[in-house]
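Thread: coproporphyrinogen III complex, take 2
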Amino acid sequence: MRAQFDSLVLESMAVIERSCYNDGLCHFESPAMSLFAPLQNDVYLRALRRESTPYTPVWLMRQAGRFLPEYRATRAQAGSFMALAQNPELATEVTLQPIDRFGLDAAILFSDILTVPDAMGLGLRFVEGEGPIFDRPIQDEVAVQRLEVPDMARLQYVFDAVTRIRTALNGRVPLIGFAGSPFTIACYMVEGGSSKEFRTIKTMMYRRPELLHHILAVNALATTAYLNAQIAAGAQSVMLFDTWGGVLSGAAYEAFSLAYMRQVLAGLTREFNGVHIPVTLFTKGGGAWLELMADTGADGLGLDWMSDIGSARTRVGSRVALQGNLDPSVLFGSEAVIRAEVRRVLDAFGPHAGHVFNLGHGISQFTAPETVKILVDEVHTYSKSKNI
Ligand code: CP3
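Output below.
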């Protein structure tokens, strides 16, 4: 069984054309896709295409993570978060854990947005209680000039995980690939880790904007190549996480974040082996800019909990699907509160096609797993009963 699985994975990967990974623009021909099992649940993909669905699909940002005891066990086995992310077999195991436990409508690759700057040679470490740290941040002109699009072969462990996960899913639900937005990964690259004020990157932005533009241009090319390689390896939809675009002024958001997400979108493989690959953009704190985001040609937009999903839908109409909106802290409430808050979001979105239920940001590590069962049950039963 194991040998058969491994040979299927290897066979799938061997036929993926890897020679043009670095230009970000090439189109892959991959007969590998025919080796994947047909999709049994396409509700998530249909919702992103704004087609009617029998119920509202649901998945949760950071659904594979520390709130699950089985994740913590696999992570302990791997030794560290990065060792887990770099081991395709264990990454597959943790990706499937929330699917097995909760009956979600999509799986998301287990990895991180910081794998790309890590492959650029910045030296990524995760320090308990402090989050990510880069040993070699990009803080002066010499470091900026040295920055290059990494050889995608350094990220092969991610593409191998994608193929292995897609194979293991066996068509149960679609697989989402992802990357950080060029601006969001630049925040970590320039700050050297997490930040509250973003003083270093904002100083660069207002004193040496050309340096930041150079970093962002490199990041946009790298992100395009990275996502296209995930698509070639089996990702059926991709998402760009712009976690920090919302810390910018409107003008700076357009120039330093949105402009580079547009570049990524322009270079993405949008149809692979005859199948449309939907793209979702999520700018946390980006509620003011939804129309601009909808104009990028993305299929879906992520919404944090600060926006009202009903007014968001009125503003963007059926141009894009909307995903998200439930405050992750709702999962600290009672069963009755969770069910009522889920219904509130579904009612606010209204009787339209094009809603993917999700949280407004990643699930907290302090969430009790049983609450997610309640959430998923309420999304499915209530949306089915309303026949949206
Ligand atoms: O959603 C999923 O289940 C897929 C996996 C996923 C991870 N990170 C795993 C992870 C995804 C989609 C991400 C994206 C990511 N990573 C973002 C964008 C989304 C967001 O949350 O805003 C960002 C900003 C990062 C950077 C990052 N990675 C930070 C700041 C941290 C440390 C803080 C934290 O929550 O621990 C990580 C580590 C990380 N990435 C963990 C997981 C499960 C926790 C690591 C652990 O197991 O200790």
